[in-house]
Amino acid sequence: MFATLPLLTFLSYFAMASAAVIPAGSTAPNGNVSTRAALSAIQALVSVHNLSNPANPTFMGYLNAVNGFTYGLTSDPNSATVVSAQLDSLNPGDISLQTENYGYSVLGLSGNYTSIGSGSRNFAFLVAADPVPQNSPAQRVSSQSITKGGLPLPTQTAVWSLEDGDSLIIKPTWINPDGSRAKTTLAYSLYYKNLIVTGDLRALAIWDPLAISTPVRFTLTPQNLPSSS
């Protein structure tokens, strides 16, 4: 069955992304802004930082639509994905990251699984999709950028929230079929060059050694911060 196939087999259904060339020592704004600035309507790039050493996050690049299906990295801000968001809440799933990539309207998560969690190899890709209702488990919708054999895959889009009111760090929350909110890790697959979300990086790597991924952090890098007046 498809669910038992390794990640490489899964990705063989899609065009593989070319590796993004990220200059060594690159830096990007860390997203630290006042609460008032954070809780505003903005347009932004999504800066991606490597959290292998959480005490010293390093800039990897910007979120970018890479292969006609999913998302990876680019070092060029001019080719990076631009998202729009109304940052008026700190509640999980209250932030919608709007984008027009692949002909769909928001940034979400999708894969072959409906549940994610500790001890599980399950994962989801970052995808572009049409909105899925908030606070509901993944729904099999066809209106998103990644499908298998034309069949819809479990998808969630109301997943994003601010880490706090004093930064523009954003994080995803996955809702499992039992209604629980899974603790998730954003990660960059070093081999496949895709951004994913999983509940257990180690379990995923044991299942598919090529899927070894580095944990990452997303920070919105505003293109139009509001006036402080």
Any overview of this molecule?
With 229 residues, this protein is mainly β. Strands 1, 2, 3, 4, 5, 6, 7, 8, 9, 10, 13, 14 and 15 form a 13-stranded antiparallel sheet that branches. Strands 11-12 form a two-stranded antiparallel sheet. The protein has helices at 7-11, 35-38, 201-207; strands at residues 41-50, 58-65, 71-74, 82-86, 106-110, 123-129, 139-141, 153-156, 160-162, 169-172, 174-175, 181-182, 185-189, 195-198, 213-222. Strand 2 (58-65) and strand 3 form a beta hairpin. Helix content is 7%, strand content 33%.
What's the arrangement of secondary structure elements?
Elements: H1 7-11, H2 35-38, E1 41-50, E2 58-65, E3 71-74, E4 82-86, E5 106-110, E6 123-129, E7 139-141, E8 153-156, E9 160-162, E10 169-172, E11 174-175, E12 181-182, E13 185-189, E14 195-198, H3 201-207, E15 213-222
Antiparallel strand pairs: 1-2, 1-4, 1-15, 2-3, 5-6, 5-8, 6-14, 7-8, 9-10, 10-15, 11-12, 13-14, 13-15
User: Would you tell me the structural class of the helices and strands?
Assistant: mainly beta
Q: Helical stretch count?
A: 3
Relative helix content: under 10%
Measure the end-to-end span: 59 Å
Largest sheet descriptor: 13 strands, antiparallel
Poorly predicted regions are 1-5, 8-36
